Amino acid sequence: MLKTAATNTDRHELLPNDTDWYYDFSQHRDFNNKVGSVITANAATFPALTGLGISYALLKLGPCSMLPPHFHQRAHNAVIGITGDTTSWMINENGVRTVKVDIIPYRMTIFPIGSMHVMQNNGKCRTFLLAL
Where does the signal peptide begin and end (predicted)? Predict the structure, then answer.
């Protein structure tokens, strides 16, 4: 129904509660996972995002852990450091240099659509990153 809501008034009728308008990452079952987790707020987990074309993910990297090499084929990815010290490496396409960024609190980097990237937690504590 949210996909076909013609107006914001219609959206508010479908999302009538204040709790429909926020997503609490800390309430996800994997929030306290010691190894790490990726907790995603998207149209499936946070219906208020339906039709907006955005999603958010809280990445929690455990001590000395890595997010393996991967890419996103449908969207650009922006990552903002919240805590910790993480290093990212990104290759935009063949023949282009590898970009290395140290992601520290309040520093942001981007991974354009289709770019291969990886992240490593450099610290002894859990690192929190917010990805858009």
Answer: none
